[in-house]
Amino acid sequence: MIKKKKTKILTLRIGKFKKKKKKTLRIGTVFYFNPNPLSLSLPLSLPTEDRTATFAMDNTDFASDSDMVKNQNSDDSEYDFEDADEEEETDVHNAMPYWLQINPDTIRKEILKIHEAQKIKAKKFLKDFQGKLTLSYEWILSGNGSTRDFVCLTAHFIDDNWTVRHWILGFLTGALIPLDDIYVYHFRKAVQDFEIENKVSTILLPNRDGFDEKNVDAIRKCMDSSVNKPVFVVYCCSDLFRLMVNDMYNEFSWHLYEDVRMLVGWGSLSSTNWNVRLYHLQQAVDMQNEDTFSKDEVYDDYDKPSDEEWVKIRTFCKLAGVIYKVAKEIFEGECSTSNVYFHLLAELEVMLKREVDSGGGDYFVGKGEKVLKLFDKYWNDMFLVLAAASVLDPRFKMKYIDFYCSKKVDSDEGSKAEAVLDYLRDVYARYAAKGIYHKPICPVATVDYEEEDDDEDEDYGDEEEKEKPDAYEGFVLFKEYLKFEGGCSREFQESELDSYLKEPVLEWNKDFKALEWWKEESQKYPILSRVARDSLSIPISRATSYDAYVSEIREPPEYVRSMDAKAANAMVCGRSWLSLIPI
């Protein structure tokens, strides 16, 4: 257990004072204590003489109360406050102890200093990490009329303790980057800064027009293709859902949305999250089904949607409701690994097709077919990566893929099942070719200890062999047998992948944790467990939880909006590294 230092957090208002007849020291007062030493409150818009700074120091840096009193008494000779002749203003820094001489510039320098020290540690960690990374790209735009934007580049991986990690490698602006390099620059900078050219196996991109084939190829070239062949591209699922929902929602006029808002009464400010909009519109549909707006006289003076507009609202609620049912499992469920994505998206495909096949009018069918077209393009692009992750779920293995493909009688889905298995065999062979991957993954806390024990055992075994001669040394026929037996065993020996697939699937359990299972089985499948770890770490969305439902581009955290770009990058990146690299 790590013993934490007690830390005092102090907010000081720095002002000025004058030497007057009476002792009056107009230095501000402590306003509040803040338990988070990284939360730095710096209202930089205030004048220099009236800024507020929040800072943290160890107890060893603080003088005791009695010491402070002694220091102040000893300083009275230097600052004679009762001298009536002097009215000269004196800067507060001349009267304060050194540790109180805090201003936004010193705090910014300290933030950057800590970030540089942490970056060296993060770089070493990633260099020594014996696994693969997924790099994700997200464009974040400040609201409130500001045109300031950031690009957030994040590394996703599962560490040696089988914990999912999301490390932000860059939180940078694109103000000075040429437009023709705006999409590639951030990948190239992160890969070069952290020296992870041979670590990246997958890139997660937004569903936006800017990431065309030319830019995607340029991003792939930033990686070491000889080691990472191929670097897969995964597109953001939350973006897909946003595009599908917005295609229907854009049919609503502003007046229609306001009329429904007044009828249902959900408040003056509407949410930009599409799941909240769905909830409110579904309320209106339920009330209309119950004929509430005709029965109750209170609604007589309200404007109501026309029959054509009610069709649009019902279409939105029906199709968006199907999408939300699956999105809730993906974004709000407890499973954060990629083994669950395939069967959930396959379910969405089936539900959407059933809704379209059930009819419901030309408008409904037209919208349903357009939503399905968007989904089918995404599904075809993502099929191989998501299906491979599903196979590495011991509840499914190849059985779910075979079942899914068997339902597609009139298509080439059967050949896709073979392609998934071939892909996994190829990945497994590349891992098996590296000797280091033949060892089980060891938790970080026990690596050194176990290595030392292994070395001691090996040394002891060598001594035993030297002391005891081999009695079979001259047995020629037996040696020929050993060569014969060894050749046969290597020729017909099953790989870990084949052995894994031959074993029965586990009984279905919705709360099953794939990472916990692979952690327990890593001794049995040392190579395949590493394949599983890297495959299951691939995210399907840049945003999770309720951020995944944002209808537009996400905004940056509140605490970085007043910072300059360099300090914002240091704060955002440093916070994401704290779990593995404490200060």
From TrEMBL:
Q: Pfam families per the record? A: Dimer_Tnp_hAT (PF05699), hAT-like_RNase-H (PF14372)
Q: Give all residue intervals belonging to the hAT-like transposase RNase-H fold domain.
A: 334-431
Q: Which gene codes for it?
A: A03p042530.1_BraROA
Positions of the HAT C-terminal dimerisation domain: 496-578
What's the name of the protein?
HAT C-terminal dimerisation domain-containing protein
Domain of life where this protein originates: Eukaryota
